[in-house]
Write a structure and sequence with these properties.
Blueprint (H helix, E strand, L loop, with lengths): L1 H11 L12 H10 L5 H14 L3 H6 L2 H8 L6 H17 L7 H5 L6 H12 L8 H10 L12 H10 L4 H17 L37 H13 L5 E2 H5 L5 H13 L4 E3 L2 E3 L7
Antiparallel strand pairs: 1-3, 2-3
Helix pairs in contact: 1-11, 2-3, 2-6, 2-8, 5-6, 9-11, 12-14
């Protein structure tokens, strides 16, 4: 399994900038946070813009959290920008601006979970660590003849199998992590997997989607996420604060709009000021 997957990866790996030899642990951490719930190709230009502005964590830490939200643009789920800012502050204060190398230290940073910690340690520092995102979990489940993994964190059995398959050599382990992740993203996809071109065809019994899982997409237009995005766009594109009258026109349902604005304030993405709203400054109102 190892030989086939690594050989396939050498041929098929996408050319992303965070995979370049000159990548930095900070660049990897930014990539991993940006790619949560966002396809990797979509983050390439935002990632480059972010690293051009803040090539080191200290630069981001010195700016207001609202600048991270502004730079986040339209990637969605902007709370990730606040998490990156908080992580940059912690790295600057605790580790003199150097992204730590161990999974435990990374896991202790604000907003960094198990997957992001393992991925940053592996891809940023070359640490031997099992990286379990949804793509890796799906490949490992299918090759073991098990149901596709459901939502939520990996269970103990998944972690045990990932550790058992992880090569002992750290650099090979890093390539293996990247290769299995890429296989899940490009070939062993959740819907319509390309089993005929899979390097593990003949050794894998194929997909077994969990029974009862709904595949119906929730409508975007009119959802709270949609309205929150409209509000964020108005405030993010402004210089300084925005009057409430500019926010009030973005959506006709006053109850829903108020709920979304209140939620954005509660999440720390907006700060109220007299008569309006602004991006967070980190200094209160």
């Amino acid at each position: 399994m190892l030989t086939e997957v690594l050989a396939w990866y050498d041929r098929a790996a996408r050319d992303f900038p965070w995979r370049a030899p000159d990548r930095t642990p900070w660049g990897v951490l930014v990539c991993e946070v940006m790619s949560q719930q966002t396809p990797a190709p979509r983050i390439v230009e935002p990632w480059r813009g972010w690293l051009a502005r803040w090539p080191e964590p200290a630069g981001l830490a010195a700016d207001a959290p609202g600048e991270a939200v502004r730079m986040w643009g339209r990637l969605g789920y902007p709370r990730r920008a606040l998490r990156l800012h908080a992580a940059a502050v912690a790295v600057t204060e605790r580790y003199a601006g150097q992204v730590p190398a161990t999974v435990a230290e990374l896991r202790a940073l604000p907003g960094v979970g198990d997957y992001t910690a393992a991925a940053t340690a592996a891809f940023g520092h070359g640490v031997r660590a099992a990286v379990l995102d949804v793509n890796v979990r799906r490949v490992l489940a299918r090759t073991a003849g098990r149901d596709d993994p459901g939502p939520g964190a990996p269970v103990r059995g998944e972690r045990e199998r990932a550790e058992a398959l992880l090569p002992s050599d750290p650099m090979t382990a890093v390539r293996w992590n990247a290769a299995v992740m890429e296989l899940g993203a490009l070939v062993c996809t959740a819907r319509r997997p390309s089993c005929g071109v899979c390097p593990l065809r003949g050794r894998c019994p194929g997909p077994r989607p969990p029974a009862g899982r709904s595949t119906r997409a929730q409508p975007w237009h009119g959802s709270d996420r949609h309205v929150r995005g409209l509000v964020m766009a108005v405030v993010r594109d402004a210089v300084g604060s925005v009057g409430r009258e500019a926010v009030d026109v973005v959506w006709p349902d006053r109850v829903q709009l108020t709920r979304c604005v209140d939620g954005l304030v509660a999440d720390g993405l907006l700060e109220p000021v007299p008569g309006g709203l602004r991006l967070p400054t980190g200094r209160g109102t």
